[in-house]
Amino acid sequence: MLISPAYAQAAAQPGGFTESLGAFLPLILIFVIFYFLLIRPQQRRMKEHKAMLEAVRRGDRVVTNGGLIGTVTKVATDSELQVEIADGVRVRVMRDMIANVLSKTEPVSGGKPHKGEADNDDADGGGNGGGQGSGKGGGAEKLKGLFSGNKAR
């Protein structure tokens, strides 16, 4: 027939600690490999990113998690920065949302910086997208001057 009879098996000898360890050894080995290949490098990257965020100061060029590139104009609080993303356009950004620091500035020695120092990081004029009015004093500056001239009247 197709059904084989089931026979009782002999009782297993107690194996002790070594047999139970042998059963869990592959699982433990996989966990150790995951720890050294995945968890430790991620912890190191998080530690470096946290140190980078703590070192952000006024004048640094940063990239946000949303892809916006701008210059830090003010460190408002421990968790908030003011970033200028275009001429005269300043937004508040949470410090944790900074993805990368593109260029760092030297720390100011001896007190308050002079007026206008934070705006001089783009002196080559190569950050406004090009076009006919590229560089300082281009088309955007002329339009800005026209609008500010109308307010004075």
UniProtKB/TrEMBL annotation:
Any GO CC annotation of this UniProt entry: plasma membrane
GO biological process per UniProt? protein transport
Q: Where is the composition biased (Gly residues)?
A: 125-138
Chain ranges passing through the membrane: 20-39
Instruction: Name the segments for region: Disordered.
Output: 104-153
Annotated membrane topology is: Single-pass membrane protein
Q: Does the keyword Transmembrane apply?
A: yes
Q: Where in the cell is it found?
A: Cell membrane
Domain of life of the source? Bacteria
Q: Which PANTHER family match?
A: SEC TRANSLOCON ACCESSORY COMPLEX SUBUNIT YAJC
Q: Which family does it belong to?
A: Belongs to the YajC family.
State whether it acts alone or in a complex, and with which partners, per the record: Part of the SecDF-YidC-YajC translocase complex. The SecDF-YidC-YajC translocase forms a supercomplex with SecYEG, called the holo-translocon (HTL).
Protein name (database record): Sec translocon accessory complex subunit YajC
